Amino acid sequence: MRKIYKSIFTFAFALILFGCENDDRVISTVLDDVNTSQAFLRILNVSGSNLDIFDTSSGVDWQLEYQLTANDPSLEGLTGVDFTVSFIDNFNDGVDNSTGPVPFGSLSPGDFDIPGDFGGSVAEYSYTLQGAMDALGLQLNQLNGGDIFIVSWEMSLDDGTVIGPEDVSGDVAAVGGYYSAQYQLTASLVCNFDEPDFFTGTYQIEQLTGSDPFFSDETFGTQTVELVANGTERSFVFLYYPGNFDFEQNFVMNFVCDRIEFSSSAVSGTLGCGGGTITQGNTPGMPTFFDQTFQNDTDITLFIQDFDDDAGCDTGPNQITVRLTKL
């Protein structure tokens, strides 16, 4: 039996039991304030999700809160946090400049000297595009819009335990807020533009093709959303599996030089099969372009790879097309 966990902050109860021809799948809700004896790091206050090719001083910064027990600022058990950075070349020019991971700094227990939002102790971490390039030995002419940098970290404890990105699956995903980070953050390379009104406001989503791999339901369906601008990024919150799970997803569109790069994340909790939450990305080989004159934002068709991360459901990716029409 597979379990699809939907972790939310309120109460725990079985949400839906739905049967497959060969595989029962249980939708259950898991409290995010369960007791745990395992220390963990929580991401707080991320600033910046993009790196500007035209500004190598652009960067990303965030905080990490250490917690062993709730509302306890002690750093018992923590010996340090080690970071690495990797570069993923997504530009299809026949040359793959992907490289890494390489070491990218560390935090000691003494760096956790800020009171945290959840009663723990907090440290700050930041990096710039230039710093990431230097660490990886990259030159500016090797970068293109849509490429990404991934900063990952591992937490070491005095009992020899090391926790990193590979540990965030299964039971880790099921305990919600206790692992509200995947021990890594991704930043996309963009070409910044100053068009705050472009592709903003009220839009209608209409799913044109494709369906989910279980029951041929539409995962986007038809619904109304609000597109919000943040630099070159546009985002909207929508209901994934509308009329069924009504699971709130945050869909992010990065306008990268001439095309749009997609990513998504859960607003809270997880919806998947025990391996995190189902996400969306770009359909390989089918880029979504936008009007670079910034005149036409009436409608756009998005080529989306649903189940980009199938969250342990073993479905693999699923291609759909979705149209956004301005209302």
Q: What do you see in this structure?
A:
With 327 residues, the protein is mainly beta. The protein folds into three domains: 2-30, no CATH class; 40-190, Sandwich (Immunoglobulin-like); 201-326, Lipocalin (Beta Barrel), CATH 2.40.128.120. It is 4% helix and 48% strand. It contains two helices and 22 strands. It has helices at 129-136, 171-174, and strands at 2-8, 14-19, 24-31, 40-47, 50-52, 59-67, 78-88, 99-107, 114-115, 121-128, 148-157, 162-163, 184-190, 201-209, 222-230, 233-240, 247-256, 259-266, 280-282, 288-289, 299-306, 318-326. The strands form four sheets. The protein has a nine-stranded antiparallel beta sheet with strand order 19-21-22-14-15-16-17-18-20, with no helix packed on it. Strands 5, 7, 8, 11, 12 and 13 form a six-stranded mixed beta sheet that branches. A hairpin with a 6-residue loop joins strand 16 and strand 17.
In short:
The chain is mainly β and 327 residues long.
Question: How many helices in DSSP terms?
Answer: 2
Rounded to the nearest angstrom, the distance between the terminal CA atoms is 44 Å
CATH-assigned fold name of the largest domain: Immunoglobulin-like
Q: Radius of gyration in whole Å, from Cα?
A: 20 Å
Succession of helices and strands: EEEEEEEEEEHEEHEEEEEEEEEE
Just give the CATH class of the largest domain.
Answer: Mainly Beta
What's the structural domain tally?
3
Beta-strand content bin: over 45%
What would the average pLDDT be, to the nearest integer?
82
So what's the overall shape? globular
The description of the largest β-sheet is:
9 strands, antiparallel
**How many strands appear in the DSSP assignment?**
22
Q: What would CATH call the architecture of the largest domain?
A: Sandwich
Question: How would you describe the oligomerization state of the chains in this entry?
Answer: single chain
- The poorly predicted ranges are 1-35, 170-179
Question: In which order are the strands of the major sheet placed?
Answer: 19-21-22-14-15-16-17-18-20
